[in-house]
Structure formats: structure tokens, C-alpha cells
């Protein structure tokens, strides 16, 4: 079953179960997929759908920071539930340990010596962890190792 079909099945189930948060989250993802398909006149593959979901997850993480600053715990809780739902459609996320191993291997591969080489390292690491790790987390780990 493709990711698109799974989203449709889960949307139907959430409507039957009256799970509003799940229904709204899946609807948001499906709308983003549809918008991309219409804009580019293509049928998206699972890999491209994962990119869209990853992007939305990143936006939710940024929104949580703003909600915390605004002291809106209700919105923080809602956004965290939405993030949990989005994570169900992404491949298993890498742990920091796994990311550190990938980064260390890549640093050896590209022969990075200092912080000046961070761009080269990030460019090599990101395709390896695509959809399975957040870019900010990877960047933080690269900086820790390179300093």
C-alpha cells in the first residue's frame, strides 16, 4: 500500500472514529501533497511524500517554540499530538547515537578537519539520513564533532 493510500485509509478511519486531531492532520498532509502535484503536474512517489511530511514536521517544531513563548500550552499540546501523527508516516527516526556514527563516518570520508568544512559534511550527511533525522539535530552533532 502506498503512503497516499495509507493516508486515505487513515483519514476514513479517523472520520469514523471522530478523531478530529488525526483527521485534521491527515487532511493537512493530503492538501500539501495535492498542492505539490497540481503545481508541478506530477504524481508524487512515497519518497516525495515523506519530504512533504518531514517539512511539515519541521514547521510544527518551530511553531511549538512560538507557542511556548506565547504561553499557549493548549496549542503546544495540540501541536505535539499532530507531530506524533506525522511521525507515524515517516520512516523510523534515527537516534542521536546513530546520527553520530553516520556523521563520524562521513567526516572521515570527506576528510573534514575544521568548522570550515561543515558545509561539505552536511552536504554528504543529509542524503544519508533523509526523512529519518532533522537537519538541525544533524547540524548540532556535526558542530560537536568538528569543534
TrEMBL record:
Domain of life: Bacteria
Record-linked Pfam families: YqeY
Molecular function GO labels: carbon-nitrogen ligase activity, with glutamine as amido-N-donor
PANTHER family for this protein: ALTERED INHERITANCE OF MITOCHONDRIA PROTEIN 41, MITOCHONDRIAL
Record's protein name: GatB/YqeY domain-containing protein
Amino acid at each position: 500500500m502506498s503512503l497516499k493510500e495509507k493516508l486515505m485509509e487513515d483519514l476514513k478511519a479517523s472520520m469514523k472514529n471522530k478523531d478530529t486531531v488525526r483527521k485534521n492532520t491527515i487532511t493537512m498532509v493530503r492538501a500539501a501533497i495535492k498542492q505539490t502535484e497540481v503545481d508541478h503536474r506530477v504524481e508524487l512517489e512515497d519518497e516525495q511524500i515523506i519530504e512533504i511530511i518531514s517539512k511539515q514536521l519541521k514547521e510544527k517544531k518551530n511553531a511549538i517554540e512560538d507557542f511556548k513563548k506565547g504561553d499557549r500550552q493548549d496549542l503546544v499540546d495540540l501541536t505535539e499530538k499532530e507531530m506524533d501523527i506525522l511521525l507515524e508516516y515517516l520512516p523510523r527516526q534515527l537516534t542521536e547515537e546513530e546520527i553520530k556514527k553516520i556523521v563520524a563516518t562521513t567526516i572521515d570520508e570527506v576528510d573534514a578537519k575544521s568548522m570550515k568544512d561543515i558545509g561539505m559534511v552536511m552536504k554528504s550527511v543529509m542524503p544519508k539520513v533523509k526523512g529519518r533525522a532533522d537537519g538541525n539535530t544533524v547540524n548540532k552533532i556535526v558542530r560537536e564533532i568538528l569543534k
